[in-house]
């Protein structure tokens, strides 16, 4: 028996629907405070329909459009949850209306889907900068190794590499 469209979903149902591992959904909860599933006894998560639509938008922006987590966070902060939900459904009219309505309320310019720099897309390929080959950028910051701390940019690059590896693992697991 299928659930009603308004019914709450478990993390396993949402993970299957979005074709993501459950740990990615849990991780996104730490990075996107807008994702707040209802938690019941024993820590079991129940996602509302709006939570699922927001997760679909986040997934589309991260995996299909190539945005970074920081870029999606900026989109959510400046344009709101409904904008990202509209991105997931491809509702261009709603996206434009939300941007127009929010830009008329404040003087701060809103983020658009065309604005590469504001969205947090990488300006250069991570491989050339992070691994030190290709591109030969001499003024790229060195990676801290040993007892010194890792810088913010290096940490972000490592995080992106980790996500890429996890996605590769997921794709390999599907093929097997």
Automatic annotation (TrEMBL):
What PROSITE patterns has UniProt attached to this entry? HTH_MERR_2
Gene Ontology MF terms in the entry: DNA binding; DNA-binding transcription factor activity
Which of UniProt's keywords are assigned here?
Answer: DNA-binding
Which Pfam family is an annotated match for this chain, by its short name? MerR_1
Give the matching CDD domains: HTH_MlrA-like_sg2
What the entry lists under InterPro entries is as follows: DNA-bd_dom_put_sf, MerR-type_HTH_dom, MerR_fam
| SMART domains reported for this sequence | HTH_MERR
- Residue intervals of the HTH merR-type domain: 10-78
Checking SUPFAM superfamilies in the record gives: Putative DNA-binding domain
UniProt xrefs under PANTHER family: BLL5018 PROTEIN, REDOX-CYCLING DRUG-SENSING TRANSCRIPTIONAL ACTIVATOR SOXR
This protein's name:
MerR family transcriptional regulator
What is the organism of origin for this protein?
Peteryoungia ipomoeae
For this protein's source organism, the top of the classification is: Bacteria, Pseudomonadati, Pseudomonadota, Alphaproteobacteria, Hyphomicrobiales
């Amino acid at each position: 028996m299928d659930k009603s469209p308004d019914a709450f979903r478990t993390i396993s149902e949402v993970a299957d629907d979005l074709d993501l591992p459950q740990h990615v959904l849990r991780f996104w909860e730490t990075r996107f405070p807008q994702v707040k599933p209802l938690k019941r006894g024993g820590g079991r998560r129940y996602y509302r329909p709006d939570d699922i639509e927001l997760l679909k938008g986040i997934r589309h922006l991260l995996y299909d459009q190539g945005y970074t987590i920081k870029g999606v966070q900026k989109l959510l902060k400046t344009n709101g949850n409904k904008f990202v939900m509209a991105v997931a459904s491809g509702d261009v009219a709603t996206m434009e209306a939300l941007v127009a309505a929010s830009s008329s309320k404040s003087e701060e310019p809103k983020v658009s889907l065309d604005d590469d720099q504001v969205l947090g897309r990488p300006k250069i390929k991570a491989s050339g900068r992070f691994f030190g080959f290709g591109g030969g950028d001499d003024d790229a910051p060195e990676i801290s190794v040993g007892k010194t701390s890792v810088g913010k940019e290096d940490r972000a690059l490592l995080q992106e590499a980790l996500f890429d590896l996890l996605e590769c693992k997921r794709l390999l697991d599907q093929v097997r």
